[in-house]
Amino acid sequence: MIKAIFLLSVLYTGAAAEAACCPDGWVRYGSSCYTIITSQRDWTEAASDCGIYGAHLIHIETKAENDFIKNYLKKFTKTGASLTSWIGLSDMIGSWQWTPNGETLSFSDWSPGQPGRNEPNSNCATLWAPKGYTWDDYGCNLSANFICEKSIDSATIVG
Fold it and tell me: I need a labelling partner for 61 at 20 to 30 A (CA). Which of 2, 10, 21, 134 fits?
């Protein structure tokens, strides 16, 4: 009986460890998996494309998470890539909120003077490459890369 319990314990622990992995092409931080999509999309298309992966545009909730993502993007910048990327933040309804759940900001890393564009349709946020991946409001109809996020619980193992 003890051997059976031990075997079940080992099998359960192994399955739990596997379930905590991110799919190929995704990177883990905390309880989330992230992937950078370098296909240029407008903000609405980017949000929709993340949904195909069972994910959403990234929600950056802490300085530590923000620093992790910025450092990850900066690795690509060293190769000459400029990865200005959509995040899941917009003020389309009058105040800056994470979409699609409507959570308000508990942390922000706006570029100096941002948000503040006086351009039409500048209601969506990016991690702005020219300013060290600080946040910038940007025209939702413009094209940019984007970052998808999903929780470890909803991540499936691929490969």
Answer: 21
